[in-house]
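Hi both,

Apologies for the delay on this - the queue was longer than expected. I finally got the copper (II) ion-bound model through. Below you'll find the protein sequence and the ligand SMILES exactly as submitted, and right after that the structure tokens for the full complex including the ligand.
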Amino acid sequence: MKTLLITLFTLFIFSASFGQKQVVEDSIPVSGNCEMCKARIESALEIKGIKLAEWNMDSQKLFIAYREDKISEKEIHDAIVATGHDTDKKKAEDEVYAKLPYCCLHRDVDPHSDKKKHKSDH
Ligand SMILES: [Cu+2]
């Protein structure tokens, strides 16, 4: 058992040190409004191959670091639009978008406007 653990640990260190080379960093425009959007976008990217995903509300950009041998740029855009958020390359399905909470409807609302209406069910 101990030998197995040591072997696994060695393999882990080995792959971790060699994997670094394939990490790609990118910044993708993703639309959203609030902290809920941020959590939604970032948690949708807690998937295999993605090392880091951080969405910035002010810049409307997602900083991402991923292993290009494990996930493609297209798959990343697919994962984002599956949450109802649009990227510069792909739009979310209207059906998915419509299911977003009111405060997260980012298409027709200026995220920095104070005139936003609020629904009581949220
Ligand atoms: Cu939101």
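Main takeaway for now: Helices lie at 2-19, 35-44, 73-81, 94-98.

I'll put the files on the shared drive as well.

H.
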